[in-house]
């Protein structure tokens, strides 16, 4: 597949799934815009090394996805956006009655509203170019709930609703919008939860992985990064031209029950 001449903007892409998606899109010929809220030397070095590795134009644009105007500026500054991967996300775990309001607001903003703002600016660019892909990295938590994850579950369910709506609004055009719903992928967002879970449950790392984190996966296996990035590529391929408004689960069987 070649995305030569196309530009992909991936939000929250200085680590984890976002970075892996950006890499695979650049490897397949796209110019890429990396993003996060930080503006460090490492962020810009990452863009430079990805450009060197893939031979593609790779830029890093700092923009905080918790702020509507910055979400919109990210796409305007990119100048072109044929493939938009809404991926930025954070997590916080607490019972609903103790859930800090600022954490609720941040999760709703970054994990859900950011996708609305970026899509709103990207769609006219896709229409002008005559082709476009919006891919929202939702979660199995967009389809199922877990206790203590009220904001995350609400935001991810919301993203799936947004995905369906955008898909209907673009249904007669060569622009598609779909969601990918991974179960657990071993990225920094998950790594950060392991020490706390080890303490809470008085378990070693391996037992936490198997009996706490992967307990939702009947397979007891993590979803690989490659599975997610290959699904991104598939949704960008001509074979997926008529896949519109759907949520693709990659979750070791979690949502089968
Ligand atoms: P990660 O922590 O490695 O990546 C999150 C990315 O979002 C980082 O690049 C971070 O810099 C960025 N980010 C955070 N706040 C931001 C902000 N205000 N503005 C811009 N960028 C911001 O975690 P990940 O696992 O790669 O998560 C990526 C996406 O995948 C998230 O939406 C997450 O909810 C989703 N997801 C992850 C898993 C998993 O098991 N890892 C499962 C399902 C869904």
Question: What does this entry show, briefly?
Answer:
The protein is α/β, with parallel strands linked by helices and 257 residues long. The protein is built from nine helices and seven strands.
Tell me about this structure:
By secondary structure, the chain is of the alpha/beta class. The chain folds into 2 domains: 7-183 and 223-251, 3-Layer(aba) Sandwich (Rossmann fold), CATH 3.40.50; 186-222, no CATH class. It has 9 helices and 7 strands; from the N terminus they run βαβαβαβαβαβααααβ. A 7-stranded parallel β-sheet has the order 3-2-1-4-5-6-7, sandwiched between helices. Helix 1 packs across helix 9 (225-236) and helix 4 packs parallel to helix 5. The protein is globular. It starts with 6 loop residues before the first strand and ends in a 7-residue tail after the last strand. The mean pLDDT is 97. Bound molecules: nicotinamide-adenine-dinucleotide (NAD). The site of nicotinamide-adenine-dinucleotide (NAD) has 29 residues, from helix 1, strand 2, helix 4 and helix 6.
């Amino acid at each position: 597949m070649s995305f030569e001449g196309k530009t992909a903007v991936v939000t929250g892409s200085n680590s984890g799934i976002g970075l892996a998606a950006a890499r695979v899109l650049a490897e397949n010929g796209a110019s890429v815009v990396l993003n996060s809220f930080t503006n460090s030397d490492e962020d810009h070095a990452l863009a430079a090394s990805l450009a060197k590795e893939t031979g593609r134009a790779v830029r890093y644009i700092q923009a905080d996805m918790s702020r509507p105007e910055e979400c919109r500026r990210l796409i305007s500054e990119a100048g072109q956006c044929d493939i938009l991967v809404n991926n930025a996300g954070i997590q916080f775990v607490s019972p609903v009655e103790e859930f800090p309001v600022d954490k609720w607001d941040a999760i709703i903003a970054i994990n859900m509203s950011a996708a609305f703002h970026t899509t709103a600016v990207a769609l006219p660019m896709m229409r002008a170019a005559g082709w476009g892909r919006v891919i929202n990295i939702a979660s199995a938590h967009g389809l199922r709930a877990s206790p203590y994850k009220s904001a995350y579950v609400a935001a991810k369910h919301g993203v799936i609703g947004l995905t369906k709506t955008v898909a209907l609004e673009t249904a007669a055009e060569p622009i598609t919008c779909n969601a990918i719903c991974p179960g657990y992928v071993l990225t920094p967002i998950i790594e950060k939860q392991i020490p706390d879970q080890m303490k809470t449950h008085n378990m070693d790392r391996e037992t936490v992985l198997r009996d706490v984190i992967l307990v939702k996966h009947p397979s007891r296996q993590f979803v690989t990064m490659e599975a997610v990035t290959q699904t991104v590529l598939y949704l960008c391929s001509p074979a997926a031209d008529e896949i519109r408004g759907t949520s693709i689960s990659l979750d070791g069987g979690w949502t089968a029950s």
